[in-house]
Automatic annotation (TrEMBL):
InterPro entries: PyrdxlP-dep_Trfase_small (IPR015422). Gene3D superfamilies: Aspartate Aminotransferase, domain 1 (3.90.1150.10). Its EC number is 4.1.2.48, 4.1.2.5. One of its GO terms (molecular function) is threonine aldolase activity. The keyword Lyase applies. This is Low specificity L-threonine aldolase. It comes from Escherichia coli. Keywords: Lyase.
């Protein structure tokens, strides 16, 4: 995920936080990367 500029904490509970200036398209891109990561 870091290679895709998505930083995630490595604790047992995952919490994704964005800045206010993140667009819906950027959120959709992160969601797609997250789904791909979980499918590995």
């Amino acid at each position: 995920m870091k290679a895709r500029n998505v930083l995630i904490n490595a604790s047992p509970i995952v919490r994704l936080v964005t800045h206010l200036d993140v667009s819906r398209e950027q959120l959709a891109e992160v969601a797609a990367h997250w789904r791909a990561f979980l499918a590995r």
